[in-house]
Specification:
162 residues; mainly alpha; globular; 7 helices; 62% helix; disordered C terminus; Serine Threonine Protein Phosphatase 5, Tetratricopeptide repeat
Length: 162
Amino acid sequence: MTTWDAVLAAVTTALTADRARGREELLACWADTGGGDAAHRCVLAHYLADLEPGLDEEIAWDRAALTHHEKVRDGDLAPVGIPSARAMLPSLHLNLGDGLLRRGDVEPARRHLEAGLAAVDALADDGYGAMVRGGLDRLRARLHDPARTVDGTVDAPPQPPG
């Protein structure tokens, strides 16, 4: 059975040192978790999505994170600094909505934006909360302006020659 220490060490490796090694460590933690270990699996899938080179695989991990989140209870995520299960929902929906929009699935992306916004009150008023709120704001802007690119900039219309 994997521990929070192992999960956090793998996340740290993935975020600060070596993404490929971090991915391997996260996958090893995943293999060491049981199907009933929803909190670990939710967090692992959440981070594994960000390490996937392919969009479909990224979306699959984001969906897995949300699926496992359904069984997460308040207090289960306290070891990673998330005070309630509901406080993780905005980030989970943001990530899945972003991936779906990049794939061109606008209406499902919009539904995940709405679900993320519906739980935004569970976020703390701190740096993490500000980051997730900002991400939801950018996703909303991209959904309302199809000319916006993935990085939030606006594609300029082509200029006629001459």
